[in-house]
Amino acid sequence: MLEAVIFFLLAGLAVAAGVAILLSTSIVRMAYWLITMLIAVGGLYFLLGAYFVGVIQILVYVGGVAVLLVFGVMLTSRQLAPKLRPGRGEVVWLALVGFVLLEALTLSILHTRWQQNAMAPANSVGEIGRSLLGEFLGPFELVSVLLLVAMLGAAYLARPKVPTQGPQHAKGTTVP
């Protein structure tokens, strides 16, 4: 009973933090809610008995993403805030796409015949490593490419703004 209560608290916190990320207009608040969501998901891993994955979730994702977001916030210009406010058409379009994706996910969950195949638990970190580089190599590489794309996006956002035409900067000083 207590396990179910803790599960629903952590799951509710993760969903609420995800919604708060979507509704926030400040990058700092988005980073805070993302860290909150990742910690809640780490708590769910602990609840499932996957202690190694929970620790990795908190250390790698919370630590790494927090540092990446802090540097992203420090390096991006202050002109980014007005760009984070979606227009009316964007809100309608994104709400429609979100609803369709939620409906597809709900239908796939409801119509899937779930089989509970017991997997042998890994007894050591070495077994987890062999599993990651063996049968789970594809998803492992997919996540690494996703993280690489996120880092490239952060570097793109953090790049200095260089004028494309004319010999003057935005503030009126000339380029040496």
Low-confidence stretches: none
Q: Write down the secondary-structure element order.
A: HHHHHH
| Percent of residues in beta strands | under 5%
As a whole number of angstroms, the C-alpha radius of gyration is 21 Å
CATH topology category name of the domain at 1-80? Four Helix Bundle (Hemerythrin (Met), subunit A)
Main sheet record = none
Structural class by SSE content? mainly alpha
Give the mean pLDDT.
79
N- and C-termini, Cα separation = 69 Å
Query: How is the quaternary structure best described?
Result: single chain
Name of the CATH architecture of the domain at 1-80: Up-down Bundle
Number of helices: 6
Annotated CATH homologous superfamily of the domain at 1-80: NADH-ubiquinone/plastoquinone oxidoreductase chain 6, subunit NuoJ
Number of strands: 0
Give the helix proportion (percent range): 55-70%
What does the overall shape look like? globular
In short:
The chain contains six helices and no strands. The protein has 176 residues and is mostly helical. It has a domain at 1-80: Four Helix Bundle (Hemerythrin (Met), subunit A) (Up-down Bundle), CATH 1.20.120.1200.
